[in-house]
Design goal:
CATH superfamily of the largest domain: Hypothetical protein af1432
Distance between the termini: 21 Å
Order of helices and strands: HEHEHEHEHEHHHHHHHHHHHHH
Largest sheet: 5 strands, parallel
Structural class: alpha/beta
């Protein structure tokens, strides 16, 4: 099995002082596999050998500066669409404008916090991933664009303490529901594999699998849209959890797990501040971590208090989490994930799980 570093996305740093490059490496090493180069020529040669998911280019690059280095990157076919984070001082406005003119460039003004660096990196990587969506057929492309736009808007509203417009979120899921109903969804799942917003990736996968499962169980029309929308919203409380906890490799401490579990309550609070939220959305958001034997959270509800929506959501949330790709782990193959879940016979609804397994095998989803 590959080690933790080899699983991580590859990023190149070009330019800046040796000390600055080392600081960047140390800031990024927990999330990315990082290689640093002094000159534009070294970085461009490295790209010809192994293409990274993104470049970090400093304003100081030998021989002609960072903006010129980015222009050269854009001239080469292999790196033309490569996302770039350009680090520069605010005073260097001319270089910033030149870098921006190259397109696909995220500007990061020095000095900055590590959190700003990671945010810029995620934005850069996602520019590249989302550009690839233009190559897939229109219905699935629209589903991806609508849901990521809606998810980003939800994050902004939560940060500003504003209520969520449920009707708009539901409308954004319409193309996803149409793709599911027409059995035309597989590029949606493939399209988010390398996206750098894990909360969005997981939520979209849960929304897709909930929609697929609901369709198999005979749920149609507005009810199917509600089910799919609930998947997109079920974890929005995680937007308030520190990335160090949310993306931590390995086991959480007891205190960290308390923080992680709080996302369910936070999600319900966000939904409570909005209007017209269907009961099914509340059930899925509030009970997708409950277990039949009462060992789940946040309320330890026993199976007799969990209806079919909660049981479905628990199965799909666990399946998605196991098969998700993370920076610190490879995705577990679906067959292995299902075997693991079959052994959770006291926690999961096994007849529903059998139907879910049959759906995946029949659809050859992966």
């Amino acid at each position: 099995m590959a080690d933790d570093q080899s699983r991580k996305p590859l990023v190149y740093i070009i330019g800046g002082s040796a000390e600055y490059r080392e600081e960047l490496v140390q800031s990024l090493v927990t999330m990315y596999r990082v290689k640093a180069f002094d000159s534009a020529a070294e970085g461009q040669f490295a790209c010809s050998v192994s293409l990274p998911v993104a470049l970090i280019v400093d304003e100081v690059v030998q021989p002609k500066g960072g903006a010129n280095c980015i222009a050269q990157v854009r001239e080469q076919k292999i790196t033309r669409g490569l996302p770039v984070v350009f680090t520069a001082s605010k005073q260097n406005s001319e270089a910033i404008a030149e870098a921006q003119s190259s397109g696909g460039v995220v500007i990061l003004i020095k000095p900055y916090w590590r959190s700003n660096l990671l945010k810029a990196m995620a934005e850069g990587v996602n520019i590249g991933v989302e550009a690839e969506w233009e190559k897939i057929e229109p219905k699935q492309r629209t589903a991806l664009k609508n849901t990521v736009s809606s998810f980003n808007n939800i994050a902004r509203l939560i940060e500003n303490g504003e209520p969520l417009p449920y009707g708009e979120v539901q409308e954004s899921c319409g193309p996803l529901v149409d793709a599911i109903a027409s059995d035309n969804y597989k590029d949606i799942l493939r399209g988010v594999q390398n996206h750098d917003n894990y909360s969005y990736v997981h939520s979209l996968r849960v929304a897709t699998f909930l929609g697929l499962f609901g369709n198999v169980l005979g749920i149609k029309g507005e009810d199917l849209t509600t089910l799919t929308t609930a998947g997109l919203l079920h974890d929005i409380g995680k937007m308030s959890i520190a990335p160090a906890v949310l993306n931590k490799p390995g086991k959480l401490t007891d205190d960290e797990f308390v923080v992680m579990k709080s996302h369910v309550t936070a999600t319900l609070e966000h939904l409570d501040h909005s209007i017209d939220i269907p009961k099914g959305v509340i059930i899925i958001a509030g009970q997708h971590h409950e277990k039949l034997d009462g060992t789940g959270y946040p309320n330890g509800l026993p199976g007799r208090e969990l209806n079919q929506l909660a049981r479905m959501a628990s199965i799909i949330d666990i399946f998605s989490a196991i098969t998700d790709r993370r920076v610190y782990k490879d995705p577990v193959p679906p067959e292995r994930a299902l075997d693991i879940m079959i052994n959770m016979d006291k926690q999961l609804d096994q007849p529903l799980l059998a139907l879910f397994r049959e759906m995946l095998l029949d659809a050859a989803t992966y």
